Amino acid sequence: MEDKTMRKILVLLTVAILFASAAPALAAELLGAGATFPYPYYSKLFDTYNKEKGVKINYQAIGSGGGIRQLLQKTVDFGGTDAFMSDKKIQEAGAEILHIPTCLGAVVVTYNLPTSPVLKLTPDIIADIFMGNIKAWNDERIAKINPGITLPAMNIVVVHRSDGSGTTFIFSDYLSKVNRQWKENVGRGKSLNWPTGLGAKGNPGVAGLIKQVPGSVGYAELIYALSNNMPVSIIQNKSGTFVKPSINSVSLAANVPLPDDTRVTITDTDAKEGYSISGFTWLIFYKEQSYNSRTMEKATALMNLLMYTVHEGQKLAEPLHYAPLPAEAVKKAETIIKSATFNGNKIVK
Description:
This protein has helices spanning 2-26, 39-53, 64-72, 87-93, 123-130, 140-144, 166-178, 180-185, 202-212, 222-227, 247-253, 296-310, 327-338; strands spanning 29-34, 56-61, 78-81, 97-111, 120-121, 157-161, 198-200, 216-221, 234-236, 242-243, 278-286, 341-342, 345-346. By secondary structure, it is an alpha/beta fold. It has an 8-stranded mixed β-sheet. A hairpin with a 2-residue loop joins strand 12 and strand 13. The protein is elongated. Mean pLDDT is 93; it is low at 8-27.
């Protein structure tokens, strides 16, 4: 009897030891930081992944500039950015950094006006508003393309991002393509020397400040305007069509050839019904994963998350007003993920 009891105790101890050794894998945690543009999608995606796979994802929405900086400092496993890194910036990192697109979104022009009218805007009017050249809402240029809408005699207060932002990059990339004065005097980038306006941190900060300031106007990712019940302008595209931002119009804008590294801008689309201020957003990570005492388990956990993001996770994008990746983008993202290595050996076979 004592032998049977002892055997049971030994079996139980063995099972306990096995579970203890497996615990770190089950309790795996990945750290990420960066873009606020896709944060509503990432929040749902990472929560769903944790529930399904038991891997916690801690993502801090601090802006694309912060995400790139933290990846370069190697304090996170991956970064999030709406502005792809330049060749020069990747060279400065001293190691190859890969980009995979995760979804597409629309940067919208939103504002705080009485009765919340839906305004039509042209590229030149948008540029002149954000350069401070158009100073009042009842300006004749705005009135001319919005017949039937009574525009208030209110001063325009521009709201822009104060942090390094991929949303700013997409917005300024668009304006640099459509307006020569903007290109020459302001340019494109994650951070700009703004000619006018108030700064706010993150897409939530911009949307929040616009809601507080009557007569204000700013730019933010579509979901932030919708979730705050803010009006969204209809913007004239290259074809002369006034297009409302939507999943469909963003998807049409993304119908362009993709380079193998997926680093491309899709603003000022040629698509007749495409929305002009659309953009991919990316997760970025080191191609060689054996750095800073990282383990193969950690590297594998990251690749599994990335594969899930471009496959199963895509179904979570549309309900949050992001466009899922086109088939070509999924294929190229998968190839990029499979190119990652640990000590020179492929992680995903």
